[in-house]
Amino acid sequence: MVEWIASYRERMAELPVMSPLAPGDVKRHLPDTPPATGRGLDGILGDLDRVVLPGITHWNHPGFFAYFPSNSDLSSVLADMACAGLGAQAMSWQTSPAATEVEEVVVDWLRQMLGLGPQFTGVIQDTASTSTFCSLLCAREWTSAFGQSRGGLQAEEAPLIIYASDQAHSSIEKAALLAGFGKDNLRLIPTDDNHALRLDLLERAIEDDLAAGRRPCAMVAAIGTTATTAMDPLKGLAALSAQHGIWLHVDAAMAGTAMICPECRPLWEGIEGADSIVLNPHKWMGAGFDLSLYYVTDPEHLIRVMSTNPSYLRTEHDDEVKNLRDWGIPLGRRFRALKLWFLLKDQGVEGLQARIRRDLANAQWLKAQVQATGGWELMAPVSLQTVCVRHVPVGVTEEAKLRAHNLGIASRINGAGRYYLTPSVLKGRQILRVSIGSAATELADVEGLWEALMDAAMQSPE
Ligand SMILES: Cc1ncc(COP(=O)(O)O)c(C=O)c1O
Is the CB of 292 under 6 A from ligand 1? Predict the structure, then answer.
């Protein structure tokens, strides 16, 4: 298996980055009924090549410029093997003390690497969606003075309100709805020309809600929106949070990784005012999926919201240790911390910083090409590694035509197999979103993509 993974990584660059399969192509290779008798794993590697590999989109490919990166550094691949091999279930300290204690240590290493103060304590969750859901549950219980121990939200006299920007990730809305706030109580505040939340409009929304007797509960700041990596004005949000006693959650799922480079930290100035923060080392950093870091300033509150304490889970050490089952939603937990440990041991802080800086520089290179080339428009500031562009043929102004033209560019690029990017719509305008940050992507790959974009623009119908 190790040999197979190593050989896959070696030849990945030759494979089409986006899987070219049609729906049903993979299922066709598999029987409709399960094998009645076990026949061992002979031939399984051949099956992986035949059945699975054609249906894989290669997220670690040097030509991967889609979505956000999901880097799976080989050190973290080994860690995942160790995790599965050990088969440890880490719900409590006692059920595998190493899993809890390694997690405590590496999560604190990360805190230091990000420049966060000691008031933040972290825990590993599976995804940013889960972390944000935990955060909004904590906000709900904070504002309602533990309404869950009484009639819950249904018994609240005034509705509790959540604020985020209209560029916030869909996981914010999902969390707000699942946490029972209701769509009517979610305010998606308009953004400015840089796609960051407008503080003046947020202030007005809060005042309107207060005047109407509603209760502002939580604000979610995007530090790095998904569309453009726009940065919400965190300092202003933190001031409003302090002024009105509103919970402040920071969604830095992608951009959080950049903060290991001190020069990026002005982008989240005000972070010390947050009640909770999420960032995903399973994106740009290199700890293979799934590994999300959730930091809070009041772990006791988190535990009070999440903890259940049936007799069969109690142990003699409960007063001295962390039982991480009480720090999130699932009871059972994998030993995910191994991935961060292996990654940091292998690359060190400096190794990770060098890669992040390479990607930031590559994004600036692409931005400069776009700005210097007629017919190309930069659609958003390049604050990190995502470059949003579109091509505007001479004389074409109609949005529908521009949409078709740019979608044509995207489908040419994505269909050719060498590069993969995400076409997207930003405030009604079709864009091509180039997200740089696959660990394998060097400047030469970005140069190649730029050539391919210019060629595709010539060929795509106007
Ligand atoms: C800003 C932001 N927040 C949250 C998420 C959701 O991340 P996850 O897949 O870990 O739930 C994403 C995913 O790309 C994102 O870009």
Answer: yes
